[in-house]
Amino acid sequence: MRYALITGATGGIGAELAKLFARDGIGLVLCSSPRSRDKLQALAAELKGSYPIEAHGVCEDLSVPGAAGRLIEQVNALGLPIEFLVNNAGVGIVGLAYQDYDATQLTAMLQLNIVTLSQLTLYYVRPMIERGHGRILNLSSSAGYVVPHGLEAAYAASKAYVISVSESLSHDLRRTGVTCTHLAPGPTRTNFFVAAGLVDERRMAKLGYSQPDDIARIGYRAMHAGRTAVMPGLSNNIVTWLARISPSRTLTGNISAYVVSRELD
Questions:
Q1: Which of 95, 170, 180, 232 could cross-link to 262 by cystine, CB 3.0-4.6 Å?
Q2: Is there a catalytic annotation at residue 155?
Q3: Long-range contacts made by residues 32-38, C-beta under 8 angstroms, separation at least 24?
């Protein structure tokens, strides 16, 4: 049986991706933080009961140094070859100017969004290349294309890194049988904005939320097709295109800040 390792697997896009893998008979190693242990085990049991697969749940807080190595040790102890790596786990600091960040929260976000993702990718891509097949799916964001991104500076920058490293890795992997895809959704109806500290979601809703199952299906198909990048939604593509051609960086920053502002209408 082939296996997929999915981080941030207990809800939203991660859980929907887990269902898609399970439906196709691909075994699962699902990772979440220890805070979601019960939810993780329930999801693994549900998928094992619904599909003819093995599903394992492992807990690790991927926002702290050394977490990638500890997760790898847990997965290695299961003795399962990982053919699909999904770096879905991520957090954001939204609605705050950079100078108002909490330093500990900033460090944890960068550790999760950049460092852990990079370390897991580096570890698992090598045996994929040796086998001559494998797929990597990284969750980026449309925010990574918007510069400057007002009131979302470090999160947007961390996702710009994911976009850049994923597209560069995709180029490096040519003719190896291994591919790297990044999925860049816009606002999606998950608990992201609550976890990020965004008090008022009404402005986000005006842009039109996507549903996590729709985003997961798009990313899943793109990963299997070996595409380098996929950005779901026409409005998402239009917004990022306008940000790239905007004649005023001040305008771009102000509009993006308005979208994620904490202020009530």
A1: 95
A2: yes
A3: 32/7, 32/8, 32/57, 32/59, 33/59, 33/60, 33/61, 33/62, 33/63, 34/59, 34/60, 34/61, 36/10, 36/11
